Amino acid sequence: MVGDIMNKIPATTQNYRILMIYNLLLNGKKLAKNELALQFHVSDRTIQRDFNEIKNFLHTLGDEQKLLYDKKHNVYYLQQNQPTYLLAEEILAISKILLEARAVPKEEINQLLNKLVSFASEDNKALIESIIYNEKQLYVNLHNNQSVLPLLWEVAMAIHQQQEIEIYYKKEMDAIAKRHQLQPVGILFSEYYFYLIAYQVNTDIDFPIIYRIDRITAMKSLNIRFKVKYSDRFEEGEFRKRVQFMYTGNLLHIQFYFNGASIQAVLDRLPTATVIKQHPQKGYLISAEVYGEGIQMWLLSQKEAIEVISPILFRQSMKETLEKMLMRYS
After folding, report:
1. pLDDT tens digit string along 174-210?
2. What is the DSSP string of 212-237?
3. CATH number of domain containing 305
4. Residues 162, 98 share a domain
5. Contacts of 92 (CB under 8 A, 6+ apart)
6. Quick one: DSSP state of residue 123?
7. Does a structural domain hold residue 243?
8. pLDDT digit string (tens) for 82-139?
9. Would you state the torsion angle of the CA atoms of residues 128, 133, 134, 135, taken in this order, to the nearest 10 degrees?
10. How far apart are CA 255 and CA 125, in angstroms?
11. What distance in Å separates the CA atoms of residue 282 and residue 275, rounded to the nearest whole number?
């Protein structure tokens, strides 16, 4: 079960042996005394003394961890109030999320999943691998198919150090990459891509701009520090509540009627949304605080289930967009 790892540990060294056993327990392994004795080339009695040492050590720490014995299966295991290892169901859930996100190339996703699944027990490892096997095999790269993880870390370091950066950024339809000097404040992931959230330097734009990290062709940190008051700090969580499809724009307070099948889906999609009232014909009147450009895209995706009430200019913009769409079919 764990022979390959144990063979690397000096079998006659008690301290190493006890540490190895404790590490296995910390990672959720269930250990049989006779199997450990065979692996370490010692007696069952020696392994029992090791378990006793671990039990005594845990007793001095309080009730956070307890070494217990399962009489039915003849194994020892660690009971933790707050486990430090990943449970099998957690590993499976994270694996599914990574596969659905399609955020990195196939080679990298395989490496990530292999590392993740390695934390599971031998039995659960085989089960998890069988569940995700088909998705791994049929995993489809994004069209750019490039690794963004090194650049992602560079951006994160610049944010942490509050250091201005210079990037060259190439949109899909641009012929050449354009230079931008930025104050980076956050990183978000949405709809397959990682995004840098930053304020432009030397412009009149007072709201953060979103840049797709895979479209940054070059980046360097500048020797310029910027300071943000704690009260004015950028909060990714609050920003995400108000942005749709990673489009910013001016912050709007909108109201709209929704008479579709699931009001819960709307409230989940728009975390700032609240239901004001319910109309017998028009449905639910909803209020939300959102950034303008992205929310219009989402509202239009709801077809006839949506009627925007306010602001008036936003309602007019919706109407004009619908008229342009209709002209394509006339």
Report:
1. 889 999 999 999 999 988 899 999 999 988 887 788 8
2. EGGGEEEEEEEEEE----GGG---HH
3. 3.30.70
4. no
5. 128, 131, 132
6. H
7. no
8. 766 788 999 999 999 999 999 899 999 999 999 999 888 777 888 999 999 999 999 9
9. 80
10. 49
11. 13
SS (H, E, C) 255-297: EEEECCCCHHHHHHHCCCCEEEEEECCCEEEEEEEEEHHHHHH
* Closest C-alpha to 266, from 287, 239, 292, 237: 287
What token pair was written down for 94? 């994270």
Residues whose CB falls within 8 Å of the CB of residue 17, separated by 6 or more in sequence, listed in order: 9, 11, 40, 42, 50
Q: Which residue has the tokens 């990714």?
A: 236
Domain check: are 181 and 201 in the same one? Answer: yes
Kindly state whether residue 272 falls inside one of the protein's structural domains: yes
Number of domains in the chain: 4
Say what the pTM is. Answer: 0.69
Q: 20 and 74 in one domain?
A: yes
CA neighbours closer than 13 Å in the CB half-sphere of residue 284: 18
SS3 breakdown of the chain: % helix, strand, coil, rounded to 5?
A: 45, 25, 30
Query: Structural domain of residue 73, as residue ranges?
Result: 3-80
